[in-house]
Amino acid sequence: MKRYILLFSLIATILTSCTTTKEMTYFHDMAQTSDIVQVIPDSIKNFESTIEPDDLLTISVTALDPNAVAIFNLPLQSYLAPGVTELMTTPALQTFMVNSEGYIDYPVLGAIKVSGMTRDELTSYLKKEISNYVEDPIVSVQCTNYKFTILGEVARPGSYDFGSERITILDALGKAGDMTIYGNHTNVLLIREVEGVRSFHRIDLTQPDIFTSPYYYLQRNDIVYVEPNKARQGAARYSQENQYLVSVVSAITSAASVIVSLCIALFVR
Predict the structure, then answer these.
(1) How many other CB atoms sit within 10 Å of the CB of residue 7?
(2) Residue 100 and residue 113 in contact, taking contact as beta carbons nearer than 8 Å
(3) Which residue(s) pair with 226 in the sheet?
(4) Residue 252 and residue 269: Cα distance in Å, rounded?
(5) Contact at 8 Å (CB) between 51 and 115?
(6) Which one of 60, 127, 132, 210 has the fewest beta carbons within 10 angstroms of its own beta carbon?
(7) Secondary structure class of 225 (helix, strand, coil)
(8) What is the Cα–Cα distance from 136 to 68, expressed in whole angstroms?
(9) 3-state secondary structure of 111
């Protein structure tokens, strides 16, 4: 029986090792030529992610007269100690959470619909509105919850902070330690949710057109799944079948042992 198991193991290893070099190489077609020039579309070159519900924004306003913009920079407040009614303020700015309808409640200006705006668009809008109260304001908007999740056949799956507004799918793979040798380069899944609509996109990282793809840059909360290649899938199937075979053999052996024991007991009597 052991010989048969070893034979099955050898056959499975050979069959599941038939992964071509092309399937394991980034930009395979590009590697065949020495020089390639791509014209990057403006939509990719000027990519900016948009603000979405549940985003966390910090907004600061400065001007020549700091007192004039103080009302637009509400500091964090907390009680000095339990039971003490006096408040303590810190220079850290409050965070504005975008509600489910895409609004923030901003001092003086009230409710502002920010979902769908880019960071620069919101900055320009606030600068224009605050200019009605303050001369030459300088507005800075930052999003504090940039993150993506990468799963599957990568060295370090998990959730990662962006650290920047512009991060590519290649950057994401780099942060996760790149694909393992079992990652399928030709069929990476990108899951994206925008304004309550979830979409699924397949990406072939062996082709150079990834650089002009609308999914080259990630957006906040994107999920990247690197599925296993044929070698990994075949090995997993073999492992399951092998475990089943061992279980069957073990059950038969146990049953035979019980029968033999009963026979011996009967004959001894």
Answers:
(1) 10
(2) no
(3) 152
(4) 26
(5) yes
(6) 132
(7) strand
(8) 11
(9) strand
